[in-house]
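Appendix B, Record 12. Input sequence as logged:
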Amino acid sequence: MDTPLPRDPADRPLAGVTVVDLSRVLAGPYATMLLADMGADVVKVEHPGHGDDTRSWGPPWTGDQAAYYLALNRGKRSLAVDLKDPDGLAAVRALCADADVVVQNFRPGVADRLGLGHADVSKLNPRVVYCSISGFSSGHAQPGRPGFDVIVQGESGLMSATGEPGGAPTKIGVPITDVLTALNAAAAICGGLVRSRETGQGSHVEVSLLNSALSSLVNVAQRALATGSEPERYGRAHSTIVPYQTFPTGDGEIIVAAGNDSLYRRLCSALDRPDLAEDPRFGTNPDRVAHRGELVAEITSALSARSAADWAPILTEAGVPVGRVRGILEAIRAADASGDSATMTVSHPTLGELELVRAGFRFAAPTPEADAAVPAPPLLGQHSVAVLEGLGLSPEQIAGLVERGVVAQHDVS
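Logged structural output:
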């Protein structure tokens, strides 16, 4: 029989926190996975027939599991239950009544119709931290407007800020607005938990893809506000720091980030071009920005004399920030080889050892033993029986729900 997920209070600050995850696809599930990584017991509520949409978003697959789904759901328990059935809905309402956190990204109005909106859940549970995730905020002129990452990348200005000078606005290669929304949601939920624990007062956290994307524009947005005009696109360069971009070498590209005058002078020395350090056109960063084209041409000419493999150690030794332009798999393997522990291996009930990318934070140095204790992304309904037993349902009641198709279970024993 399934048991609650193991937690180590010493390493996981959200140990003892229960999260009911009513979300699907990316922003909500990624946020709740981060909470699980911090020690929360996350119950993922899914449709008993098809589960989270991403379970079918393949190829690629690992065995019979979609890679997309596996990326977003480790550390959770799966309750597969039909919310359209009164008994199934009652079970989920009971789960919310005793939860610390509830996260949902239903289409606007759906949670309220189900009796799972903030007003209903907070009546049952005044201390709950309730998080609503949407494409556009509740105050938007079209509050029910569907929000998809690609739409919000365009609507928010992210596309406008991305791409080559003079070229077309470009979509960022990952669903970045969903990821930013997940990070904002997880951070705000943690803040709500602090208040809940100190005062017993709950919170309604509203997070939207659009607001998350707009807030991520930081200095680019402030540039627009300061100048009253649309910022230019700078491609692989920086709008206000020079040199801070990719450069071709004799056999490939490197990235040089000389973010201040001292680093710039170190770069000139490493390139054996002291004249560039003394040239009044390039003396300060504002000077270098004003004469960007001339300086970039000089640096490009100097770097073309040697290979990327030669320049990386030379610049590193000189104290100049330098990097390679890597492919994704190459980047993951390079990070692991460098000791950054980018990946972890968990034990999946049907797939065996499964490699996943870690969260961006650490509370302790990763170990194989700690990784082995992290539950893999659950099979659909893997924990249905255990969750319902925890709500006080009898074996006969649970069996009846399963027989009626209200609940799905996956026996991995």
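Residues 244-324 form a domain with the formyl-coa transferase, domain 3 fold (CATH 3.30.1540.10).
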